[in-house]
């Protein structure tokens, strides 16, 4: 299923996406707040996994294509929170929003536009009650996107990412939340 916005198409992955996606993931500046840069083989395996997850569950990371020229500019989606993070995100739902936009496309509002579309899809097609997003405490660009899409910081939900060793500078993460605006307060508490 395609998700369209004014400027973007969020779609399933195609073979033509492998090289540009690998380029995004190998950029040390774009990957500053992640565990590491990713090589082309790993990026390709990730795409295969995304294709399978979207086909099986309807959740996952979609390719983000710019309508004006067909360029792959990154990924965005809603997906299941991974097991290590779920263990430390006390009280958080199991679904998160996320996005990665290639550095050449930063500063145009694409991450916000794609993330908003993913949330709308989560509400209308999956009936989700709440979605979370997390980012390193210093990743202010991601925090701004979360603010712009209507998410609210939950300081009580901040956590130390268990995928990093004790004391690692990338360990501290902040948690943001958003509830489905189409549900009443009563609906949100009945889960």
Describe this protein's structure.
By secondary structure, this protein is of the alpha+beta class. It has six helices and nine strands. It has helices spanning 18-25, 40-57, 83-88, 110-126, 140-148, 185-189; strands at 3-4, 8-11, 60-66, 72-80, 95-101, 130-136, 152-153, 159-160, 172-179. A five-stranded antiparallel beta sheet has the order 1-2-3-4-5, with helices on both faces. Strands 6, 7, 8 and 9 form a four-stranded antiparallel beta sheet that branches. α1 packs across α2 (40-57).
The parts where pLDDT drops under 50 for at least 5 residues are 185-191
Number of strand segments = 9
Task: Give the proportion of residues in helices.
Answer: 25-40%
Series of H and E elements: EEHHEEHEHEHEEEH
Alpha-carbon Rg, integer: 16 Å
Helical segment tally? 6
Strand content: 25-35%
The N- and C-terminal alpha carbons lie at a distance of 27 Å
In round numbers, the mean pLDDT is 91
Taking strands numbered 1, 2, ... along the chain, how are they ordered across the largest sheet? Answer: 1-2-3-4-5
Helix-strand makeup class: alpha+beta
Largest sheet: 5 strands, antiparallel
Shape descriptor:
globular
